[in-house]
Amino acid sequence: ILADGEDEDGTTWFEMPKFTPLTDIKKPTKKQQESIIKGLRDALSYLHDKGMAHRDVHPDNIVVDASHRPCLIDFEWANPCDGDVCVDIEPWKCPERAVGAAQTGMEDRGLYTVQAYLKDGMEGLKNLRKSKATGFARDGTPYQPLEGMAGAERPCEDRWKIMNPDVKGKSVLDVGCNAGWFVRKSLEDGASRAVGIDRDEPIIDIARSFEGGEYRVMGVHDLDGQLGHFDVAFLLSVLQHVERPCEALKRVTEIADEVFVEIPLRFVDNELAGLLKNAEQIGESERGRPIFKVVR
């Protein structure tokens, strides 16, 4: 509010800055894009400090001022987060987090949708809708679906902390990379090279819209050494979705020195258990999915 007052008849008035709908801005510069995304993150952090979450981050609900600072409009605030597991029914709450502690999956999905729009306009949103990836992964967000909980997803960052991979100066391969979060995180942590592969072409288009990393449209069974050798590989919640999972694991271990494998236990048959016999189980997700570290 720039100014406010009251007329003689008792009417209260406010002078507000002039805003432009985000969807009216065509081809914003990279600097403008960064300003908008930073402003949105700052606004959400403010809400989190108050113990609130926001569930309607979308290009249609964002306006910007002359300095390209964003403002969220026309939304409902979610209920205050009490730290309980509030997935499935109310996925916009903060799952398993203390009051004001973290962004929610719904907010992250919204932010990545906005990023896709800023980078590629309506084409960016079309790519999101064309993707065959499920859950929030379709929107490029760093989240992976939880089994049986379509509206609830856990952050990739949690698994990263569990794995604690040493990627500095190393080459990294992410099999089933979705929108490339692990690729970009590897580069951020000092990897010399990071490659992501996924059979879903639209999701690879989304991954390529973000800076950093190499991406290929291919599945795990397409690997035959054409991408070179890797120091570290991620095979996270992939084996239960492919035919011949044992062959898939063997293909990855042949081209990588260290492989992180995540898979629900019920999909581990005798043959796969034999391949993982000497692997170190380094952690387990909140849904009971073990994470193994396979070293050649």
Q: Can you tell me the CATH topology of the largest domain?
A: Rossmann fold
Widest sheet: strand ordering: 10-9-8-11-12-14-13
What is the CATH architecture term of the largest domain?
3-Layer(aba) Sandwich
Largest sheet: 7 strands, mixed
SSE-based structural type: alpha/beta
CA radius of gyration is 22 Å
CATH superfamily of the largest domain: Vaccinia Virus protein VP39
Order of helices and strands: EEEHEEHEEHEHEHEEHEHEE
Treating each run of at least 4 consecutive H or I residues as one helix, how many helices? 7
* Oligomer class: single chain
| CATH class descriptor of the largest domain | Alpha Beta
Question: Can you tell me the number of structural domains?
Answer: 2
Give average pLDDT, whole number.
74
- Which stretches are poorly predicted, pLDDT < 50 over at least 5 residues? 74-106, 134-154
Shape: elongated
Number of β-strand runs: 14
Please report which band the strand proportion falls in: under 5%, 5-15%, 15-25%, 25-35%, 35-45% or over 45%.
15-25%
The helical percent reads: 25-40%
InterPro entries: Kinase-like_dom_sf, Mo5U34_MeTrfas-like, Prot_kinase_dom, SAM-dependent_MTases_sf
Protein name: Protein kinase domain-containing protein
Domain Protein kinase: 1-204
Pfam families: Methyltransf_9, Pkinase
